[in-house]
Amino acid sequence: MSTRKEPTDLLEEELQELRHEQAALPSHNLKDEDFDDEDNADDDDDDHDYNEDGGHDDDYDDDGDDYDDDGDARNAGKAGRHNGWVPPGADNQGGDEDVFGTDLDEHFYIPRRLEDKCASLVEAVNDFHFAMLNDSQRNDFYRQALARQVKPGDVVLEIGTGSGLLAMLAASAGAKHVYTIEANRHLAALARKIIRANNLQDKITVINKLSTNVHVGHDFPERCDVLVSEILGTLLLGESALQFVADARRRLLKKDAAIIPRAGRQFISLVQSNELRQITSVQKWEGFDLHEFNALQDTVSLVFTKQYGFRFSSVKHDLLVAKQQVCDVDFTRDGPGSLGEEVIIPIVAEADGTVDAVLTYWEAYGDKDEQLVMSTEPEATKDNFARDMQWGQALQLVEDLDNEGDEPKPFVVSKGERIDLIVRFSEDSAVMQFALSRPQHAA
Ligand SMILES: C[S@@+](CC[C@H](N)C(=O)[O-])C[C@H]1O[C@@H](n2cnc3c(N)ncnc32)[C@H](O)[C@@H]1O
């Protein structure tokens, strides 16, 4: 069985190693959002010479990037515990210690096809890749965006090929060539197989690396015209799209390259729900008073609807604040840190009630005028089971922190009341945490 788990932090020493590696890379300052005109294909490092043979064949291999994988992509959720995230199954230098099935009893059978795969990869694929690939509206969003953006002669770059589907859509949209990057070697190998089976091997090159280790002049001859990626999480930026896209923009793309998706917005609603309350707190059962058990209620972390095991649209609820934007991301311009550390957004309650949770969802836009929209809002995904099963939404339970005590106190609002929504972003902007406060209490 595969469930979306919270990401586990990298062990401190692995993190140190990762930071050390990143610091050692030639042009890898992910915080630097400015496009460096000097740093283009012509003057890229001499020691990363483009290999004529390598350019259009599909024999790239993992060069031993020393990244470890931890946590599940669409599961990044614990506020403030996100920095250093890499995709699940990103190749290790020292081989796969995280082998699938090692935690099963010895007499349990594992098919040979899975024996050499790493557990976090198998988990991620079964957790969301299949649902994602069957989210037909998602695939169509990318097909339409690519059809609008790819011009004859364009070279397209993709971050994160998975099965190779978007790379094939880009080739079908008329790209001269597609370079598609994949951090996991098994996925890269499968994508090559699939691309060959679809007779697109002359148009698409799969590069088995983490995108931050790819270099112009070594992996492909010049900066690319279009970037496409689908590294959006249950939280818009949960799969570190801001870091990876900003890095690609700075080092791997032409100055006015088209970027798909071009932008995105994270939204929240404030919800009241007895059904949600029933599975996240307790009051009494028959004559027994149990409310003190709520002392352990988690009002700190974002939890994914998949983890609760429901589609939010199937849970009875009232919207006390219907839809509020909490951040606006422009992938053609923004980078890690663009969102700052904290914002306070004044909002007005639209009905009387108790705010049980902050519900989060997002929209991503495939074109400049935002006609092409992909959304995870519960209403928009009602008829899209696959989307709810791959992304779903995230929820953070709410307590009245202006009246903090041994147990969480309900945050009760009246229609028309002004409240402050405090949004805290993790250092890399990938994860957020929410709090509600009455204006007189806000610092
Ligand atoms: C959510 S899947 C999308 C796959 C495919 N693009 C699609 O849309 O069907 C993301 C894939 O990108 C890979 N990935 C994520 N970030 C990456 C990065 N920075 N460099 C290389 N691969 C990455 C993951 O291993 C995963 O296979």
UniProtKB/TrEMBL annotation:
PROSITE patterns: SAM_MT_PRMT (PS51678). The keyword Transferase applies. GO terms for biological process: methylation. Keywords: Methyltransferase, S-adenosyl-L-methionine, Transferase. Pfam families: PrmA (PF06325). Residues 1-99 are annotated as: Disordered. SUPFAM superfamilies: S-adenosyl-L-methionine-dependent methyltransferases. The keyword Membrane does not apply. InterPro entries: Arg_MeTrfase, SAM-dependent_MTases_sf. Signal peptide: none annotated. One of its GO terms (molecular function) is histone methyltransferase activity. Residues 33-71 have a biased composition (Acidic residues). This is Arginine N-methyltransferase. It comes from Salpingoeca rosetta (strain ATCC 50818 / BSB-021).
